[in-house]
Design brief:
Layout: H1 11-36, H2 42-67, H3 83-104, H4 109-119, H5 123-149, H6 155-169, H7 174-194, H8 197-218, H9 225-229, H10 232-290
Helix pairs in contact: 1-2, 2-5, 3-7, 3-8, 3-10, 5-6, 5-8, 6-7, 7-8, 7-10
Length: 291
């Protein structure tokens, strides 16, 4: 049975369309469940809505690529697991958070209050923030979007595009969008470097867990490290070290992305060459049979 093929230019619009459709279904589902079970906790309803939205998006993307002929989706194997890479990712994400904190603090406090109120607290919030979000978001944004884009775009373009989409999904909360974009760039490099979703899921979960714990301890998503430390000398020392880590990481990421981009293009070129040879061989065999 022949496999149905889809035009590659349609991949990104198709995934965005699937996500928007899943969001619409999730909103309708939330309205129905909320009306049918008015006593349901707000955090529980938020979890159900989120789970429906991303589960449908991930499933829809998987079906789309399966029908197009993709045989392997979602690289979840531990064979490529690289513990030092995970540790490096955690350190880079943490350092980046320190560096961009002054930028985030420029936004009005109401953004952080809205985010804190939306997330809430308790078991449902922890399940959503530390478990569901890392797994489902990484499956969709790194496992589907970045994986497919990196096969035909340069690694840098693929990572930045997927990170931009990841940031946009966190709108209308502007500080969360900025933070999500920066974190997604790091996640993109980690994914392309290891070609496994396990490290990025772990990094995402740890990052969200730290953010949730900070929120529980301070009562807000807005955390001024300088104020918490209470010593400018120590703060600026930490900031300088974090900035050095980020600068070094940017240089490493740039070199790594360029190398990955060249590797992907070489792999695709080799794949096309093998396909051409097979096609030529089959054509020759058919001509000899006809004779």
């Amino acid at each position: 049975m022949s496999e149905r093929k889809f035009s590659r230019w349609a991949d990104l619009p198709a995934l965005v369309g699937l996500f928007l459709a899943a969001t619409l279904v999730a909103v309708v589902c939330a309205a129905v469940v909320g009306a049918a079970v008015p006593e349901m906790e707000r955090e529980a309803l938020l979890f159900v809505t989120y789970a429906v939205q991303f589960s449908l998006a991930v499933a829809g993307g998987a079906i789309y690529f399966r029908r197009r002929g993709e045989r392997r989706l979602f690289r979840l194997g531990f064979r490529w697991f690289d513990a030092p890479l995970v540790l490096a990712g955690i350190v880079i994400v943490a350092a980046t958070g320190v560096v961009i904190e002054p930028v985030l603090n420029l936004f009005p406090e109401r953004y952080f209050e809205e985010l804190t109120e939306m997330i809430g607290s308790g078991g449902w919030s922890i399940l959503l923030t530390v478990v569901a979000a890392p797994v489902l978001e990484e499956l969709f944004f790194r496992g589907l979007i970045l994986e497919q884009l990196s096969r035909r775009w340069s690694a840098t373009a693929a990572v930045l595009t997927s990170a931009l989409l990841f940031g946009v999904v966190h709108l209308p909360n502007l500080p969360q969008m900025v933070n999500a974009f920066v974190v997604a760039v790091v996640m993109g490099y980690v994914y392309l470097a290891g070609r496994s979703l396990v490290p990025v899921i772990l990094i995402h979960a740890i990052n969200n867990g730290i953010a949730y714990l900070t929120m529980e301890l301070t009562g807000t998503q807005s955390s001024d490290m300088r104020e918490l430390i209470g010593n400018d000398t120590i703060y600026w020392l930490i900031y300088a070290v974090s900035a050095a880590v980020v600068i070094g990481a940017v240089a490493a990421i740039d070199g790594g992305l360029r190398a990955k981009g060249d590797g992907v293009r070489d792999e695709e070129e080799n794949g096309r060459t093998k396909t051409d040879k097979i096609t030529l061989h089959e054509k020759t065999a058919d001509e000899e049979s006809a004779k």
